[in-house]
Amino acid sequence: MKLQDKCAVFGIWNHPESSVLTYLGLYAQQHRGQEGAGIVSFDSDRCHVHKGLGLVGDVFDESNLSRLKGFSAIGHTRYSTRGQSQDAQSIQPLTAVIHDKDLSLAHNGNFTNFLSLKKQLTEEGFAFKGTGDTECLVHLIEKYSDKKSSFLKILKKALSHIEGAYSLVLLTSDQLIAVRDPRGFRPLVLGKKVLDNGQTAYIAASETCAFDLLGAEYVREIAPGEIFVCSKDGISSEFMDVKEDRKACIFEHVYFARPDSHVFGSSVYMSRKNMGRALALQKPVSADLVIPVPDSGVSAALGYAEESGIPFELGIIRNHYIGRTFIHPSPSIRNFRVRIKLNPQHSLIKGKSIVVVDDSLVRGTTSKAIVKILRSAGAQEIHFRIASPPVTDPCYYGVDTPEKEQLIASTKSVDKIKEFLKVDSLEFLSVENLLKAVDPENKGYCRACFTGKYPTNVETGSV
Predict the structure, then answer these.
(1) Which regions of 206-302 does DSSP assign to beta strands (E)?
(2) Which of 39, 135, 257, 264 has the CB geometry, 3.0–4.6 Å to 75, for a possible disulfide?
(3) pTM of the predicted model, to two decimals?
């Protein structure tokens, strides 16, 4: 089991095929959310919407994309964090009509004061259609809207009541707005694409890999606390009144982001290789082969192999063609869920001492099953190496994390986890070495999932 971030957002301004580029941008970021997808476009003053449950390629086709007309669009892919995975009402972008004007918005993150906000807004008469926290922002914008104030002023007032993590794209008939919370928990980047007529289309996305697919140029990060605006008058930026210490999510580098992306200004691929190098130095071991858990452990395993001098091999092969609707047989067929995806190379592993590298360990059940199939393939020794610290606490900033008691490192010591996995040795990358690998310039990263020290107040429970 892996932690799930997660969502992706995408927005584009001033492109004649805005909905098609949004579709492609979401496709490039499919790894960030696979439960639902949506696109909203604007054609003059009219809003066009299409969204549904499932993967981007299942939700959209040429027919419905052709109906999403206009020169601006935003899109979203989602995993549920707040809200149920099959809650169709919570699929984003969310839309609303406020003072006879259409508004749509898409959000990556979590509002950590969602429970009190929802209670307050419900008591004030605002009706919630879905179970997600993003709807709070729609109601706050409606609450503070008046015909005299600019939308930007209203948005800033609404955001002043929000606590937690948010990277947002908002679309009206005359503006595309990209916003990042003052701590910068989740990524949000700015790109541009020059059109044949010399005009420039501006793009906001969760990851730079979306720009690569579109042939767009990466410009910079949207800064923490920044409100970036595209309109017919050009581009501009404002900043929120509140300033906070930067707390970017370190798990974007550990696992969430695609390795070919640049997140928080750094190459994800190089960060993961650096983690593997640091892991090899932290506790060396003698072995015949370094083997990654595919695909999450590949970059770190390459770094580990290069630093240690132990040969790198693809000792486990992943089946990439497992559909989400695959029918699993009864539990009596042991390890089936792992075996259908991962198959060991017996001739490579038999009689060997191997270092197995993965990015993280959450519940430990999948890792235990992997160890079992490697033993059955004849591995003589298994040294498990995790390129991040033990995950001991839930995340409240846009990650689908199990309850604390379900996190194996919250209830077991490293020695007990080693016994549970039935490995010859086990080592986690230390928090200090992770920060050196990812953040040598001390930019500021949140690591609450490893320490339990949260940078904001968090609310737990239900309404």
Answers:
(1) 217-221, 226-231, 234-239, 248-249, 262-263, 266-267, 289-292
(2) 39
(3) 0.92
